[in-house]
Amino acid sequence: MKIYRYPVKDTWTELVKRPVFEREEISGLIAEIFAEVENKGDKALIGFNKKFDKAETKSIAVTEEEINNAENELSNDLKKAIQQAKDNIFKFHDSQNPEIQKIETTKGVVCWRENRAIEKVGIYIPGGTAPLFSTVLMLAVPANIAGCEEIILCTPPDKNGAVNPAILYTAKLCGVSKIFKTGGAQAVAAMTLGTESIPQVYKIFGPGNQFVVAAKEYAQRYGVAIDMPAGPSEVLVIANEQAVPEFCAADLLSQAEHGSDSQVIFLTTDLKVFNETISAVEQQIKDLSRNEMAGKALENSCFILLNSLEEAVEFSNLYAPEHLILAMDEFEKYIPMIQNAGSVFLGNYSCESAGDYASGTNHTLPTNAYAKNYSGVSLDSFVKKITFQHLSKRGLQNLGKTIKVMAEAEGLLAHKNAVSIRLKK
Amino acid sequence: MKIYRYPVKDTWTELVKRPVFEREEISGLIAEIFAEVENKGDKALIGFNKKFDKAETKSIAVTEEEINNAENELSNDLKKAIQQAKDNIFKFHDSQNPEIQKIETTKGVVCWRENRAIEKVGIYIPGGTAPLFSTVLMLAVPANIAGCEEIILCTPPDKNGAVNPAILYTAKLCGVSKIFKTGGAQAVAAMTLGTESIPQVYKIFGPGNQFVVAAKEYAQRYGVAIDMPAGPSEVLVIANEQAVPEFCAADLLSQAEHGSDSQVIFLTTDLKVFNETISAVEQQIKDLSRNEMAGKALENSCFILLNSLEEAVEFSNLYAPEHLILAMDEFEKYIPMIQNAGSVFLGNYSCESAGDYASGTNHTLPTNAYAKNYSGVSLDSFVKKITFQHLSKRGLQNLGKTIKVMAEAEGLLAHKNAVSIRLKK
C-alpha cells in the first residue's frame, strides 16, 4: 500500500499515473496467427486448441447437445440469479432505445436519426480460472435488444475440450446464435476473417489477455470495429465520515482480486475512516481465496487523505477511474462534479459487485484513463445511428441560397449546381 | 463509367468492392514526425510549415487580430449563409441531448446515464484548394453543445503564413478556443503530445490526406481517441421512374468533384432514367471547373440497372455507402429496409450538398463500408455517457442473493463478500 497524507496538487499528476506495462513485442506473433487462420481456417483453430489450450477438439462449433446439457449442470439458484441479472440488464439497456425525433431545422427541411443494428457481432469470453458468464450477459443482452442478426461467441475449451456450462447456458438464454471453441488471438482472427464454421463479424467485443487485446487492435486493419481499448481493471473510492470502513475495504478488495495488475485507489477526508479502512483491508484479505493476487494488487494501491470532497472528486477526474464509488450518504452534490468515470456507485450500499453482475448497468467499461474519452458498452455500441433528411421543394428553396453560397466559397461548383438545377425546374 | 445491366446477385460482392489503395509505408515517417514534435515542440512545427507548406510562420498560434480581421474579408452573403447553416446544425445536434432517464431495475436499485463532455478536443481542417469551413461548423458546433472546455483547431498556413478567413471566422463564431497554423501529421502529433502553444487533447476530429489519416491512427497509441477511420468520399443513388435524371447526374457529379478517388454508384430500375442520367452526366461534366478530377472519379463509377427497388436497397446495404440518395417520390416504404448507410437523402429535392452544408445533419460520415459498424459524427462523439447506480439498503437486499450466487460461481469471493458484509450490518 502507498499511503499519502494531504499531498499537494503539484504531485497529483504523478500519483494518478498508471504503471506502464512493458508491452511485449507480439505483433509478429499476432500476424502469424492471423495468416494461419486465414490459410487453414478451422484446421488452424483445432491446432491452436491443442497447442495453447492442451485441448483435443474435433470440431470448433459447440453442438446443440452440449448447449442443452449445460442447463442440467447449473443449480437452480444460479439459474435464478442469471435470470434476475438478465432482466435488470435488459431493462436498463432497453431504456437506451431512443424515440425517433424528427427536427424541422428550416421550414420544409426535416432531419432525424434511426438506429440500425450492426448485423454481425462477435463476443469473446476468456477462459482461465473464472468462467465469465456475467460478461456474456453484458454483451449478448444489448446485442439482442439492438437486433443484431448474428451474435456469435468464441471461448477457449478446457483441457477436456469442453466449455463451462454457465457460459453455454447464459449464451443460449441471451440469444447467441453460435458458440465456438477457440480462444486467444486465434479466436479474434477467426471472427475477423471467417472460417468454414465461424462467420466473419463487423464488430468484436469482450475482454482478454494481452494477446486478445493485441489481436483486437490488429483486427481493425481489416475494417472490423472493436468495443474499446483495454487495460487492467480499476476502482477509486471516495469516502467521507459517513462511510463504513469495512464496506470500503471489501470494495477495494473485490477490485484487487481481479488480478495482480488491478488498480485500487482510496480517497478520504476523514482520518478515522482512513485508518480503519486500511486496517479492515489488512484484516479481510486474510480470508480471501485469491489473496495472493489481491495482495500483489494492493502493493500498488494508493490510500490518500485529502482536505475536501471537492478535492477528492478533482483527483478522481484527473485519474478517470473505470469504477468510482462515492461511499457516503450525501452524494447528490458531487454528481455534477464528476467529469471522467466509467460507472459510478452512489452511497454506502452500492457496491461495485452490484454493477459487475446485476444492477443493470454494463460492466464493460473504459480503463486506463480512457474514461476521459470513451464511454462504456451500451446499446449504442451495437447500433449505427443513421441520419435521414427530407427536403421538400419549398425546403430546398429556403435553404438553396445558403448551400450555393457556401459551395461556391469552398470552390465546389458541382455541389452548387445540384441545387441550382433543382431550383430552376 | 462501368455499366451493368441486371447483374446476377452472385456478382454483387465483386461489384461492391472498393478499389484497394496502395497504402504507402509511411509509418516510419509518422513516427519521426511525432518524435520531432515531442522533442522540439513549436519549433518543429515552424520547421514543418517551412518544409511542407512553404510558409514562414513566426508563431504557431493565430493572433486575435488575425481572427478579428477575418470577418471583414467575408461577404455578407457568406456570413449569412454560415449563420443559417450553423443554426440548423445547432438545432439538430442539440436535439441529440437526451433527458436523463432513471430506471428502477429492481425495487431500490436505480440506474441512469449522464452525458459528460470530453474536456479537450482537437479539430483538424485540411488546407489545399477548398477551405473547408463547413467542416469547422460540423465539428465545432456539436463540441460546443456538448460543453467541451477546450476546442482547438489546427490547419496549415498558406504560402503567406495565413489561414483562410472563412475558416477563422467560422471557428470564432462556433466557440473554438484556439487556432493554430500547423497541418498534416505534425498537427495531429502536436494535438496528441502538446507543445508550448498547443494543448494536448483527448480526441481528434477531422478529415485529411493519407498522412493525417495515418497520424490519427498512430495517435491512438498515446491514448487519444479519434472520430473514425477514413476513406474516400462516396455516394450511392437509387432512382426509380419518378427520379429526374438531371438531378441524379448533378448529385453524382457533386460527389465526383471531391477527388479522383471518389466513389459514385447509380442504381435504377428504369431504363429511361438509366440512359438519360448517363447522358446528363456526360453533358454536365463539361461545365465543371473541377472536371478533370470528376472525370477520373467517374472512370470507376458504376451505373447499374436492377430489377426492383428492393434489390437496389439490398445492393446498397451490401455496399454500405457514406451517402445514400433515394431519388423518388415514394421513398417511405424503403426506409426500414436501409441497414447500412451514413446519411440518407430522401426524395428528389434532398440533394447531398444540402447535408454537406446546411440541412443540419453532420457531414462527417463513415466511408469505405464503415457504415456497417460506425455511425457518423454526432453530439455523442463529443461526450462520454457515464452510468450511475444507487442501491438503497432494501435494494441491495433485493439483489444481494443474485450477486452472491453469481460471484461465487465465477470464483470471485471478495465480490461476494462486498455484499455479505453489507447485509450482515
From TrEMBL, chains A, B:
This is Histidinol dehydrogenase. Belongs to the histidinol dehydrogenase family. The keyword Metal-binding applies. Keywords: Amino-acid biosynthesis, Coiled coil, Histidine biosynthesis, Metal-binding, NAD, Oxidoreductase, Zinc. HAMAP family: HisD. Its EC number is 1.1.1.23. Transmembrane segments: none annotated. GO terms for cellular component: cytosol. Zn(2+) binds at residues 255, 258, 356, 415. Signal peptide: none annotated. The lineage of its organism: Bacteria, Pseudomonadati, Bacteroidota, Flavobacteriia, Flavobacteriales. Its cofactor is Zn(2+). It holds the Pfam family Histidinol_dh. Catalyzes the sequential NAD-dependent oxidations of L-histidinol to L-histidinaldehyde and then to L-histidine. NAD(+) binds at residues 124, 186, 209. It comes from the Bacteria.
